[in-house]
Amino acid sequence: MKKIIAVLACVLLAAMASAEDDPQQVIPARLKAMFETPDKPLDIAPVVVQADWAIASWRQDGRGGRALLKKTHHGWSIYLCSGDGLKDAGTLEKIGISANDAAGLAAKLKDAEAGLDPSALALFSSFEGTVMMMNEASNGAGGGHEVHAQ
Is the keyword Signal assigned to this protein (predicted)? Predict the structure, then answer.
């Protein structure tokens, strides 16, 4: 009986650790903690990951866009928010992402968004310009998101 309990405890701990490391769960949770309010739910999908970079497409209160995130020693942080520019590997390279990772992100995003409703894609595309979010002082803390809402 003790062996069974020990095995179950190990399985449970492994499952919890993998959930904490899974960008598909961690990134939406982080963004929701930063930006979601009871009256303005935040929908985050899809999330694509390549190495230490990710792109999360989001919708909230009739608006939308894409967030580029970078994994640091603090976890996933928003690097910048933009629209269709994040679909382009060349743009991602100009931001400083390696050619391989930029191509991987762009391809994964294209595949992930291929089957989505055109209205969702229109919202992701509606974000105008680029808002830098990550710097040494903020570590990606929510500054700048409200600019798009105006």
Answer: yes
Rounded to an integer, what distance in angstroms lies between the CA atom of residue 62 and that of residue 56? 17
> Taking 80 as the threshold, does the pLDDT of residue 71 lie above it?
yes
Token couple for 13: 């701990």
- Pairing relation of β-strands 63-72 and 75-82? antiparallel
Q: Which residues contact residue 38 at a Cβ distance below 8 angstroms, ignoring those fewer than 6 apart?
A: none
**Higher pLDDT among residues 4 and 82, named by residue:** 82
Q: How far apart are CA 16 and CA 10, in angstroms?
A: 10
What residues are paired with 7 via a beta bridge?
none
Strand-pair category, 53-60 with 75-82: unpaired
CB 41 within 8 A of CB 29: no
Give the 3-state secondary structure of residue 91.
Answer: helix
